[in-house]
Specification:
The complex is a heterodimer. By secondary structure, chain A is mainly beta. Chain A has no helices and nine strands. Chain B has a single domain, classed as Metal-dependent hydrolases (TIM Barrel), CATH 3.20.20.140. The model of chain B has no long low-confidence stretch (mean pLDDT 96). Classes of the chains: A mainly beta, B alpha/beta.
Chain lengths: 121, 412
């Protein structure tokens, strides 16, 4: 296994992202709520750069007890990684494609040593 | 550069460079040795509205030209009918908001530079370039404006853009079908120009009977020249039947297929394939899932109401199997259904790969190449061999020549 230096925690802004390459692996590393996650930069759809686009809150719909809709809103808790080629959206916590959660971005481990952040390949 | 996300949050993204954005497609091409295959994209786009300052002076009528040039000024109305919709999904498709920021150098035509960038990234040898906003020209309430805008675009494209394309960019020119005489004049004027392989009808119009007697001379002129006739579809939220839709996904999913279904039905039922047997007819940008539906539906009705289609000498689906279909956006959801579709349309000889790049739901060539069921011959044909045969496009290297000959798309 190889550890690739990603950056310093003190310099990694909350909600930020870095793309690192380790051999043939392209990896997107995200910081959310002080924790790190890392995923393959290869979209499960057509192979686009899944981690190089927007991150955006999940869109939800308010369905009331009487089954009527009260419109769309942004989730306060779930954020998505969006592939810029076609808009495939992935749950940032799990790497799951939200349209079919059986499909996932490959996940990589991230380790922190002091102020230094590493991704493990 | 920052893009707007949820609740005003801004997300930094790299500046747009098409070559960089498509670097994964470039890697796919190298892994699959696409350089050995001739790859032809029969449906790609540019944003001609960004060049209207060069296009509109080609308008012939001085009054319409004055109106058009004046309308370009900010806040003074639109030149073309526009579509309500959010193709870029609020910036999720980053190349939309970033497009104007992409840098190009030198005196080269910007649209040619950008087109060559994505072609090279995907290993595309030839691309058929279509406009974007002009796909709505058929909805223009002034038929003389429709005709003059087509005239201006066709002059600009054939005189300023295609000659700079290095022989790799061709087009099927938009046809102002709202005026048959004018459509014929444009076929006669532009049909023999280099890079013109046919003419395109924008099908985003529900009031046009493609079987109108007035149009027969237009189709005949295209057929006589050995050119192709294509029907390019699109969405239209303003169409009465779609006014109940509350999401763009609904209008987009139904609109492309709806218009092609409408016009293809009129084409087949009225026996136009019998009247123009040598005219290649291509149905563009509606995916493929609608074709088996329509084949079965029309065949069923035809068996019961044959007397309404006296010109037909075989079933509607048989005529449909003689037509060509562009592949994008290919519905790769149920592999069994897709395999059945390929069988029903004779994909090996009738299907033409298309990217639709740079639009939001583009397909890369590996969408075809990676399918588990087509033969090697079918993959070569769909990705480029069929188009090479129809449009008479030469191979760009010895290996491509060898493969075109091997699969029957080029005489030895």
């Amino acid at each position: 296994m190889t550890e690739q230096f990603v950056g310093r925690d003190s310099e990694f802004e909350e909600g930020g992202r870095r793309i690192v390459s380790v051999g043939r692996h392209e990896i997107g590393v995200y910081k959310r709520d002080g924790a790190y996650v890392a995923y393959s930069n290869i979209c499960v759809h057509q192979g686009g750069p899944a981690c190089e686009g927007l991150t955006i809150a999940k869109v939800e719909e308010r369905i009331m007890p009487d089954k009527t809709s009260r419109g769309l809103y942004f989730s306060a808790t779930e954020r998505h990684i969006v592939c810029p080629w076609h808009g495939y959206e992935y749950d940032m916590r799990t790497g799951e494609f939200v349209g079919d959660r059986r499909l996932k971005l490959r996940k990589y481990n991230v380790v922190q040593r002091g102020d230094e952040i590493y991704v493990v390949v | 550069m920052d893009l707007l996300a949820d609740r005003g949050r801004r997300v930094p993204v790299e500046e747009l460079n098409t070559t960089t954005l498509l670097s994964h497609a470039t890697r796919q091409a190298a892994q699959r040795k696409f350089e050995d295959m001739m790859i032809v994209d029969v449906d790609s786009h540019h944003y001609e509205n960004e060049s209207f300052a060069e296009v509109l002076p080609f308008m012939e009528n001085e009054v319409l030209r004055h109106l058009a040039l004046g309308q370009r000024a900010k806040g003074r109305g639109s030149l073309l009918p526009t579509q309500v919709g959010t193709q870029d999904m609020g910036g999720r498709i980053t190349r939309y908001p970033l497009r104007s920021s992409e840098k190009t150098e030198g005196a080269a035509v910007r649209d040619v530079t950008l087109t060559h960038r994505w072609m090279d990234a995907m290993s595309v040898d030839y691309a058929c370039l279509f406009p974007t906003g002009m796909l709505n020209v058929g909805l223009h309430p002034q038929k003389e404006m429709e005709a003059d805008l087509c005239w201006a675009y066709n002059r600009w494209l054939t005189e300023k853009v295609l000659p700079e394309g290095g022989g790799r960019i061709f087009s099927m020119l938009p046809l102002p079908l709202g005026d048959a005489d004018e459509a014929l004049r444009q076929v006669e004027t532009f049909g023999d120009r280099p890079g013109v392989t046919g003419f395109m009808v924008t099908t985003v119009r529900s009031d046009l009977p493609v079987h109108s007697n007035a149009l027969m001379k237009v189709y005949r002129a295209i057929e006589e020249r050995g050119l192709a006739l294509s029907f390019h579809s699109g969405p239209n939220w303003g169409e009465p039947i779609f006014k109940s839709c509350n999401r763009f996904i609904s209008v987009h999913a139904l609109g492309f297929t709806f218009y092609n279904i409408l016009h293809l039905t009129n084409w087949v039922v009225n026996g136009l394939s019998e009247r123009f047997p040598k005219l290649p007819v291509i149905w563009i940008e509606a995916g493929l899932a609608w074709v088996p539906f329509l084949m079965q539906r029309l065949d069923h009705e035809y068996m019961l109401r044959t007397s309404e289609c006296p010109t037909l000498k075989k079933k509607p689906s048989d005529y449909m199997r003689d037509m060509y279909y562009s592949s994008q956006p290919m519905e790769v959801q149920d592999m069994g259904a897709l395999e059945c579709t390929f069988r029903m349309i004779n994909a090996e000889t009738q299907l033409l790969w298309s990217s639709d790049y740079p639009h939001w739901d583009f397909d890369v060539p590996s969408v075809i190449y990676d399918l588990p069921f087509p033969s090697e011959r079918a993959k070569h044909n769909i990705l480029g061999g069929n188009a090479a045969r129809i449009f008479k496009l030469p191979p760009r290297n010895d290996k491509q020549r060898e493969n075109l000959i091997k699969y029957g798309n080029l005489a030895a």
